[in-house]
Design brief:
Elements lengths: L2 H24 L7 E4 L2 E3 L1 H17 L4 E4 L11 E8 L1 H5 L6 E7 L4 E8 L4 E6 L4 E3 L2 E3 L11 E4 L9 H14 L2 E3 L4 H9 L5 E5 L3 H13 L3 E3 L12 E5 L4 H13 L1
């Protein structure tokens, strides 16, 4: 499997799909918003974006299956494309410029390819196994901050699962008091990309799905960062809890999140 060649094709496909999303945002029809669950919104743009991605990825790697948010294709395989066609739909609907297309290729044991297009900023983040992480052609790396007091932290708030709110309150209070601050921009894919390129020093969130984190996590790892679950293990792809940070602060960052959610 020629991962670098495949990566180039995926980047082209994601950029083309990003052009579609960008054009649709300019004329978006709010009457076509739907609810999948409380506060969980979807639009025709999500579905059309996913359809374009699925059709294109089938041509790139016909043998692969799919784990796609809108279930355009449900066939699973030894390798699977993990797709979020529009991460940050609520931002998109409200014309807030932070929404992404996220595509990853994964085996049963690891993520092999990752591409995230931050549509409004026209920023494409991409990498593959044993390669650096790139942003629009330039190699990126995680923050080198070695003290939490020098870091900016990101998180995401639950939209329809509120059992962990106390943990969030504890974590936010700690980080507001002990770092440069906490940001919630509304797209986990963007958050992870921003960790990968050093804008954020750390990110944590609960109740995420594989399509929210698969691509972004590989970008963080290949940019020199650390990704784990809330137990410090590797169950972050399907385990719904993720911590990502630069190497230098990881121990302190992990400890702070763990204490906040275990109080």
């Amino acid at each position: 499997m020629n991962l670098p060649a495949m990566l180039d094709q995926v980047v082209d496909l994601v950029k083309q799909t990003g052009d579609f999303v960008r054009k649709e945002q300019l004329k978006f029809d709010t009457a076509r918003i739907e609810k999948k669950a409380k506060n969980d919104l979807v639009s025709y743009v999500d579905r059309e974006s996913e359809l374009r991605l699925v059709n294109g990825l089938k041509k790139i790697f016909p043998e692969a299956g799919f784990i796609a948010e809108e279930n355009t294709e449900t066939k699973r395989g030894e390798y699977n494309w993990i797709i979020d066609p529009l991460d940050g739909t609520t931002n998109f609907i409200h014309s807030i410029p932070s929404y992404c297309i996220s595509v990853a290729l994964a085996s049963d044991t690891e993520v092999l390819i990752a591409v995230v297009q931050e549509v409004a900023r026209d920023e494409c983040f991409y990498t593959c196994k044993q390669y650096p992480s790139y942003l629009n052609g330039s190699i990126i790396s995680v923050s080198t901050a070695d003290k939490l007091e020098d870091c900016l932290i990101a998180t995401g708030f639950p939209v329809n699962y509120f059992d962990e709110l106390e943990g969030y309150k504890n974590a936010i209070e700690f980080f507001v008091r002990n770092t440069h601050g906490v940001r919630r921009i509304g797209s986990a894919a963007a958050d992870l990309c921003y960790v990968a390129c050093g804008r954020f020093s750390g990110f944590f969130e609960v109740n995420l799905k594989p399509w929210d984190v698969a691509a972004g996590a590989l970008l963080v790892k290949n940019a020199g960062g650390v990704v784990c679950d809330f137990a410090g293990g590797t169950d972050w792809l399907f385990g719904r809890r993720i911590i990502a940070s630069g190497q230098q602060i990881h121990a302190d960052f992990f400890s702070a999140v763990e204490k906040a959610f275990c109080k």
